[in-house]
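Propose amino acids for all 458 sites.
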């Protein structure tokens, strides 16, 4: 396997043993970005000078016996809606095209404290509001598996960069599906933690009560390593739980005996090939001893209407800028925000009451199982100019449930279609039981045939 497709744990061991320096590794990734980014457009801004300086400092500290942990010296990417001190942060918007923050977002600062090297800013759908990462101002981001298709959104640049071997991991944000759908499209792992576990200070908000920050990575173990670094208190985020992610200790064990909940009524409608792959993966888990529990999910049906109403928050956040600078918003986003502007206060309040009902329903469902398994999305990434009807609905429907409930949820790859596109399986757990969910996801990852396919890039 090529070095650029190694896991963080593998790279960390290599760095710590002196098998490679962070400077050499960072230079390798920057050269790969220079060669492939014109094709993919995964990065909006490449911070080569800053990355090499940070790598040199990481090497110096390691040489002095100061090891900061498994991210020490590891090159990663950051979604472009997260403030980075001294590095342009566009948020995928004309409004912020030339913004160079004088501060780091909470999560960026924590990555730096853990010794990670920030390669640059990964592109996003305009203001992180969309499922395709086709950006009218900074160009469309391509899927490394098929560069005529989108990589999912809105964290498409982060997913494209990791899948293409341009970064060992990346941070993304997820308000409805924006980490897990790109992970599904690009054949990598994408983890949305429990609401409030990762602080969002310095991240441009979209829907404050549904926004999450999380990792896109090669495997579940790498996602857990990132979570250890970025979770914890955020004094300026009123939604921060203040909790620190701590992985479960001891023997990992096997998937045998784990109760896997399957809620077909809501989650399993969509493209037959996707359903077939996820069913095959569930069958493999059952062969290895998992207990499959069929769960009634009829009460979830209102969730999409509910999320549409909650997105009134997006209009509230951007209304002033939209009125003052309408030309800085694409026609697509103007239309979206226009729809949200017509949502009444009473409808918004009703939606929040319905969220409480959904949260109670999901808690009841989770009493019957250890984790819920479903397709990460019920549609495949579309060709740029051929989005089918209902694309956004099928891209986000399954994932959005867990933004509304706040539960942790992860997408892991489970195979390749006949067209050579990856399929994601979503595993979701109990609220605030992130370590347990990642343990189950790791066991599922081990139980399935190893996903070791990579895009045909050179």
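Proposal:
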């Amino acid at each position: 396997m090529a070095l650029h497709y190694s896991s963080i744990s593998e790279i960390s061991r290599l760095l710590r043993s002196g098998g490679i320096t962070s400077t050499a590794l960072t230079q390798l990734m920057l050269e790969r970005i220079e060669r492939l980014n014109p094709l993919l457009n995964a990065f909006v801004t490449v911070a080569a000078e800053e990355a090499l300086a940070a790598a040199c400092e990481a090497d110096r500290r390691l040489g002095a016996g100061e090891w900061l942990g498994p991210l020490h010296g590891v090159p990663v990417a950051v979604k472009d809606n997260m403030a980075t001190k001294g590095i342009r942060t566009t948020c995928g918007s004309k409004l912020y095209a030339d913004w160079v923050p004088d501060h780091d977002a909470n999560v960026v600062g924590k990555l730096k404290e853990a010794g990670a090297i920030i390669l640059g800013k990964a592109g996003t759908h305009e203001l992180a509001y969309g499922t395709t990462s086709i950006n009218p101002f900074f160009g469309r981001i391509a899927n490394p598996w098929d560069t005529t298709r989108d990589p999912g959104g809105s964290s498409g640049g982060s997913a494209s960069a990791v899948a293409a071997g341009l970064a060992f991991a990346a941070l993304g944000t997820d308000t409805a599906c924006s980490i897990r759908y790109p992970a599904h499209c690009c054949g990598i792992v994408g983890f949305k933690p429990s609401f409030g576990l990762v602080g969002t200070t310095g991240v441009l908000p979209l829907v404050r009560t549904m926004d999450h920050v999380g990792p896109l990575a090669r495997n579940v173990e790498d996602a857990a390593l990132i979570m250890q670094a970025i979770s914890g208190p955020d004094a300026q985020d009123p939604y921060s739980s203040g909790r620190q992610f701590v992985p479960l200790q001891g023997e990992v064990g096997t998937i045998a005996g784990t109760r896997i909940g399957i809620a077909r009524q809501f989650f399993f409608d969509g493209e037959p090939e996707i359903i077939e792959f996820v069913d095959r993966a569930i069958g493999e888990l059952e062969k290895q001893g998992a207990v499959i529990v069929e769960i009634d999910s009829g009460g979830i049906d209102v969730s999409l209407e509910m999320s549409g109403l909650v997105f009134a928050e997006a209009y509230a956040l951007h209304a002033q800028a939209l009125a003052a600078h309408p030309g800085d918003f694409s026609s697509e986003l103007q239309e979206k925000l226009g729809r949200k502007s017509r949502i009444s206060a009473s409808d918004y309040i009703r939606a929040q009451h319905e969220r409480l009902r959904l949260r109670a329903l999901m808690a009841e469902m989770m009493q019957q199982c250890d984790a819920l398994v479903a397709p990460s999305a019920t549609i495949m990434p579309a060709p740029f100019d051929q989005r089918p009807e209902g694309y956004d609905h099928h891209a986000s429907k399954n994932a959005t449930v867990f933004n509304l409930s706040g539960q942790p949820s992860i997408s892991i790859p489970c195979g390749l279609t006949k067209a050579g596109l990856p399929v994601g399986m979503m595993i979701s757990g109990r609220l605030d039981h992130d370590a347990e969910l990642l343990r189950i996801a790791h066991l599922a990852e081990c139980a399935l045939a190893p996903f070791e396919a990579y895009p045909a890039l050179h």
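DSSP finds 15 helices and 13 strands in the chain. The longest helix spans residues 345-366.
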